[in-house]
Amino acid sequence: MAAITMDRLTKVYPGGVRALDEIDLTVEDGEFFALLGPSGCGKTTLLRTIAGLEESSGGSLRIGDVDVTRTPPGSRDVAMVFQDYALFPHMTVAENVAYPLRIKKVARGKRTEKAAATAGELGLADYLERRPGQLSGGQQQRVALARAMACHPRVFLFDEPLSNLDARMRLEARTFLKRLQRELGVTTVFVTHDQAEALALADRIAVMESGRIRQLGTPSEVFRRPANTFVASFIGSTPMNLLDGVVRSRGIEVGGELLPTPPEPAGRLVDGEKVVYGIRPEYLVHSPTAVPGSLTGEVRVVENLGHAQLVTLEGPAGFVQLVVDEDTPVALGDRGFAVPRQDRALVYRDGELVTAGADPTGLTAGARATGAT
Amino acid sequence: MTPPPDHAAVPSASDAAPVAVATAPAGPPPSDTEHRRREAQRAAGREGARRTVAQIGFYTFVSLVLAFFSLPLLWLAVAPFDANPGLSASLPEFTLQNFQVLWDNPYAMRSLGNSVILAGGTGLLVVTFAALAAYALSRVRLPGRDMLLYVLLLLSSIVTGTAAMVPLFNLATELRLIDSQLGVILVLSGGLLPSAIFILKDFMDGTPRSYEESARVFGASPFQIMRDIVVPVVRPGLATIGVWSVAQVWGNFLIPFLLLRSPDQYPAAVVMYTFYTEGGQANLALISTFSLLYSVPVILMFLFVSSRYGFRFHGGIKR
């Protein structure tokens, strides 16, 4: 078990694409860490660089106390589970799980025993003699996990671990993965483009965009206080409403309505300044009648979320989405009012969060120390 | 006999049925619908007859084509056991004498052994080098890689072709490879390799890189990756190439005829050319018997390979 320390880690592909731009990041020992971002943001490159499948063009990488920047992948003591699982199709489950041990020259009898035991822990005891092609997606994934576990690495790397499972299996596998990681206590880094997956699984998340980390923090920090509008629009199963506004002496004017200034940025704003007012659909309260300090509009779309409804209002502020209780009747064409929860509203200036505390991105040393605990 | 049941009339119903369906809701007179129904039945009967005629025609045609191709095979099966075989397939005057004569011929049986050496040697060489080259070409980015492959493919048809006969002979003379089986194996391998690389590269391209990367992270060396992962995964491709090159060499007449001098080195394809009677006529008895023996190993090889290796692929990648 070991921490992973990246210091100004850079990867430039031939042709000049900067996939990683001076990444400074420490993944603590035993942490379950998510690299989250849209496709092409460099998250997979970062994972592959940690694995050693890509060679970094600059900076250094340490696993535990060892500098592994130039170490070949096989000597880094990491195990990787690929998005497609990469199970060897010509080997049985037992042979697949035993393969890393075979490379490490463990005697046949011992490695068979070890593979059977590891596979048994993951509920694969009945499938040892099957080939990967004869297994379901969920079973294949567990074989890939067993293969990674068999050699007791110091670090697990998962590339999009859940993306190849159907929706129902995904939930099961998510819970399973989280429990497994807790039990093993092995430092784990995983890559995902699915914010819900990152929020549910990770102890800490790094949100990436074009080779840089835009925010680093626990799931609740990243969800509640996105450090910039990029993270704000990326995190959350229903994206945050980001509305253009102007600062006035008694509040923030959004679409002609004066909304009270949230407590945190109050006093840090200048009259007449252009800002972005951010509020999640979950933190808007619906009202059928006019309320002062609310956003208004005509109901354009109603989407059923099962336990609630996602309502889209079109008004002077543009489109505003809010989550409404399943029992509240909302009809298309109705006039609706949305009252923001003051303690959850955020204000962005030039795309960055206006805040009272330390650097909200969690990237400076002080913020990292608080974020890690 | 009842008229064709309804389900038999389905194909013809395409012209009759839509009309009936379209008029039914409007409540047409009963006599009209009755009339239409009879009409539809008659149409179905005509259709059935036409179909029978078409089927008879089809099977006659297929039988003719089949006969055209099976008569030579029939001759091959019958003539070796005939005391006086002609050019037509006929009921044989049964004898095993032909096999006895062939067995006593100093070159016949040995030539089959020579063929095995040439085909086996070439097959081994082609599979080994094509696998290595195809793997490298599939995994390493080379500028102009595809161009290189196409040029090689183009040239290969010249290397073993008639056009290069003289330079090949000269080259072999200079290298002292005349009258040596090694020379034949090398020339044939050179001719087959480009196509083999071309075909195998496709198999290699179809093998996900994540297999190899996964093995690399576990610490496997390039040789271990090749032996444990790549070769087993592309095995159907290797088997295909092996069978194909053996069959190519087995049937090749020109190159061994050109490069070999002594009759005890000749492979079967060349020896067959020497079976004449004293009168200078083709010795049909020997040729047919030898042809039968000559084709057996290739058939056995196909059967063996398809049962042993089977052209199948177990998926380990979730798509």
Overall outline of chain B: flat
Assign the CATH topology of the largest domain in chain A. Answer: Rossmann fold
Structural class of chain A: alpha+beta
Order of helices and strands of chain B: HHHHHHHHHHHHH
Helical proportion of chain B, percent range: over 70%
End-to-end separation of chain A in angstroms reads 18 Å
Record the strand order, biggest sheet of chain A: 6-7-8-3-9-10
Tell me the Rg of chain A in angstroms: 24 Å
Distance between the termini of chain B: 55 Å
Main beta-sheet strand count, sense and barrel state of chain B: none
CATH class of the largest domain in chain A: Alpha Beta
Transmembrane segments (chain B): 56-78, 116-137, 149-169, 181-200, 237-260, 280-305
Membrane topology (chain B): Multi-pass membrane protein
Region (Disordered) (chain B): 1-46
InterPro entries (chain B): BP-dep_ABC_trans_perm, MetI-like, MetI-like_sf
Commentary on this structure:
Chain A has 373 residues and is of the alpha+beta class. Chain A has two domains: 4-230, 3-Layer(aba) Sandwich (Rossmann fold), CATH 3.40.50; 239-353, OB fold (Dihydrolipoamide Acetyltransferase, E2P). Chain A is 25% helix and 33% strand. A six-stranded mixed β-sheet of chain A has the order 6-7-8-3-9-10, with helices on both faces. A six-stranded antiparallel β-sheet of chain A has the order 13-12-11-14-20-21. Chain A has a five-stranded antiparallel β-sheet with strand order 15-19-16-17-18, with no helix packed on it. With 319 residues, chain B is mostly helical. Chain B folds into two domains: 6-81, no CATH class; 103-308, MetI-like (MetI-like fold). Helix content of chain B is 71%, strand content 0%. In chain B, helix 3 packs across helix 13 and helix 4 (108-139) runs antiparallel to helix 10 (235-251). The radius of gyration of chain B is 30 Å and the shape is flat. In chain B, 27% of the residues are buried. Chains A and B meet through strand 6 and helix 2 of A and helix 8 and helix 9 of B.
